[in-house]
């Protein structure tokens, strides 16, 4: 049974199922849905949560009275459907004011406006229940390095995040930040190109404990990287606060395909990892339906993301229970006391003993590891014959 349930924590952004199919060469192909319509759509397909950028919900030029009316209507839809808002974020990329970045803009007025806009957006997210706040620096980059000093850009980004962490603490909000990396698009290059860059940067902040990452499958694949390895590093560092699931062919434009639609094997190892380690955060799908789809196709897309996740979760359980796979893994990971005595923490006596030990290098090099068999068994689990 692959029916999504609240405990699976499947969420979608308003901008995902609400995507109208506009691209750089083509007009919208689907009518815009209101935020309330989208909440009902997500409830219909069985999602648990809905996320938004400030302006997905409240237009950038809304009056305070309009804002409050919109929030009231949205909250009513949440209450009626039981959907929650796990995460919120700021749109710091659509408006022309941000054409040269927000926190890293050369213009102090733009930088100050970006902080103001983010504080209002944080208030909005918290008001609707969000505990995770994502920062994707979509315009924080350049087309020409003549325009900005990249070291200055890092300092500006740090200054902004430090300011906003203090704001959250000052308000007493229970909110964590999650930084989302992307190598390029819409800018020629975007600063902090990968999750690894973000992890290094976080340690330089005033409140690193408040800040983690939101890795996105497509963004790391655009950079030609192994997404699982990025996620694993974030997890190991205690920084996997959120995740954007979708799919993407390497080194192409930002495709945001349905989760698992392109690289089933990578998606499998990702789901297996999240389930095996007990990742407890939202499974957020940051993707949209093909431009060929109508309203029904959008639901096919959303249901497909969740169904594929649950199928892969079942495959992971099958992999973990497969005696032949487990026997191979036990063999690969077998401990041997004679050698493990040399590993682990340093000591002078250990170093001396290790320097004196004779190794059978040829035997180590000659040993077959049976990864071909292991991978074939994995493929057979995925293809449904095991
Ligand atoms: C763009 C993205 C963004 C971010 C969002 C923050 C529009 O490629 O991935 O989606 O995920 O701004 O959550
Ligand atoms: Mg993206
Ligand atoms: Mg995108
Ligand atoms: Mg994303």
Automatic annotation (TrEMBL):
<dbReference type="GO" id="GO:0005737">
    <property type="term" value="C:cytoplasm"/>
</dbReference>
<dbReference type="Pfam" id="PF01261">
    <property type="entry name" value="AP_endonuc_2"/>
</dbReference>
<feature type="binding site">
    <location>
        <position position="216"/>
    </location>
    <ligand>
        <name>Mg(2+) 1</name>
    </ligand>
</feature>
<feature type="binding site">
    <location>
        <position position="286"/>
    </location>
    <ligand>
        <name>Mg(2+) 1</name>
    </ligand>
</feature>
<dbReference type="GO" id="GO:0042732">
    <property type="term" value="P:D-xylose metabolic process"/>
</dbReference>
<keyword id="KW-0859">Xylose metabolism</keyword>
<dbReference type="InterPro" id="IPR013022">
    <property type="entry name" value="Xyl_isomerase-like_TIM-brl"/>
</dbReference>
<keyword id="KW-0963">Cytoplasm</keyword>
<dbReference type="GO" id="GO:0009045">
    <property type="term" value="F:xylose isomerase activity"/>
</dbReference>
<dbReference type="GO" id="GO:0000287">
    <property type="term" value="F:magnesium ion binding"/>
</dbReference>
<keyword id="KW-0413">Isomerase</keyword>
<dbReference type="InterPro" id="IPR036237">
    <property type="entry name" value="Xyl_isomerase-like_sf"/>
</dbReference>
<keyword id="KW-0479">Metal-binding</keyword>
<keyword id="KW-0119">Carbohydrate metabolism</keyword>
<dbReference type="InterPro" id="IPR013453">
    <property type="entry name" value="XylA_actinobac"/>
</dbReference>
<feature type="active site">
    <location>
        <position position="53"/>
    </location>
</feature>
<protein>
    <recommendedName>
        <fullName>Xylose isomerase</fullName>
        <ecNumber>5.3.1.5</ecNumber>
    </recommendedName>
</protein>
<feature type="binding site">
    <location>
        <position position="244"/>
    </location>
    <ligand>
        <name>Mg(2+) 1</name>
    </ligand>
</feature>
<feature type="binding site">
    <location>
        <position position="216"/>
    </location>
    <ligand>
        <name>Mg(2+) 2</name>
    </ligand>
</feature>
<keyword id="KW-0460">Magnesium</keyword>
<comment type="subunit">
    <text>Homotetramer.</text>
</comment>
<feature type="binding site">
    <location>
        <position position="180"/>
    </location>
    <ligand>
        <name>Mg(2+) 1</name>
    </ligand>
</feature>
<feature type="active site">
    <location>
        <position position="56"/>
    </location>
</feature>
<feature type="binding site">
    <location>
        <position position="219"/>
    </location>
    <ligand>
        <name>Mg(2+) 2</name>
    </ligand>
</feature>
<feature type="domain" description="Xylose isomerase-like TIM barrel">
    <location>
        <begin position="41"/>
        <end position="291"/>
    </location>
</feature>
<dbReference type="InterPro" id="IPR001998">
    <property type="entry name" value="Xylose_isomerase"/>
</dbReference>
<comment type="similarity">
    <text>Belongs to the xylose isomerase family.</text>
</comment>
């Amino acid at each position: 049974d692959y029916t999504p349930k609240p405990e699976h924590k499947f969420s979608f952004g308003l901008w995902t199922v609400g995507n109208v199919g506009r691209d750089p060469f083509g007009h919208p192909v689907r009518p815009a849905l209101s935020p309330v319509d989208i909440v009902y759509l997500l409830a219909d397909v069985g999602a648990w949560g809905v996320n938004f950028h400030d302006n997905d919900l409240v237009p950038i030029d809304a009056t305070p009275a309009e804002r409050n009316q919109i929030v009231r209507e949205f909250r009513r839809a949440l209450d009626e459907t039981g959907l929650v808002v796990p995460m919120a974020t700021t749109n710091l990329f659509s408006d022309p004011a941000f054409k040269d970045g927000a926190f890293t803009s050369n213009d102090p007025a733009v930088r100050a406006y970006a902080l103001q806009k983010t504080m209002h957006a944080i208030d909005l997210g918290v008001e609707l229940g969000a505990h995770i706040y994502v920062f994707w620096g979509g315009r924080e980059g350049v087309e020409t390095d003549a325009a900005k000093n990249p070291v200055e850009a890092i300092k500006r980004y740090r200054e902004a995040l430090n300011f906003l962490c203090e704001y959250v603490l000052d308000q007493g909000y229970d909110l964590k930040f999650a930084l989302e990396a992307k190598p390029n698009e819409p800018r020629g290059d975007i600063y902090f190109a990968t999750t690894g860059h973000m992890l290094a940067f976080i340690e330089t902040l005033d409140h690193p404990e408040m800040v983690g990452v939101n890795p996105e499958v497509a963004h790391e694949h655009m950079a030609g990287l192994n997404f699982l390895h990025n996620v694993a590093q974030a997890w190991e560092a205690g920084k996997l606060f959120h995740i954007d699931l979708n799919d993407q062919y390497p080194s192409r434009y930002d495709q945001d395909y349905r989760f698992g639609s392109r690289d089933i094997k990578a998606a499998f190892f990702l789901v297996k990892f999240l389930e095996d380690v007990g990742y407890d955060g939202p499974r957020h799908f940051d993707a949209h339906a093909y431009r060929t789809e109508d309203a029904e196709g959008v639901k096919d897309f959303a249901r497909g993301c969740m169904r594929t996740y649950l199928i892969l979760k079942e495959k992971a359980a099958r992999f973990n229970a497969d005696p032949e796979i487990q026997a191979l893994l036990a063999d690969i990971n077998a401990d041997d006391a004679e050698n493990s005595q040399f590993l682990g923490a340093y000591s002078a006596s250990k170093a001396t003993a290790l320097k004196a030990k004779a190794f059978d290098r040829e035997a180590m090099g000659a040993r077959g590891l049976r990864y071909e068999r292991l991978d074939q068994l994995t493929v057979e689990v995925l293809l449904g014959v095991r």
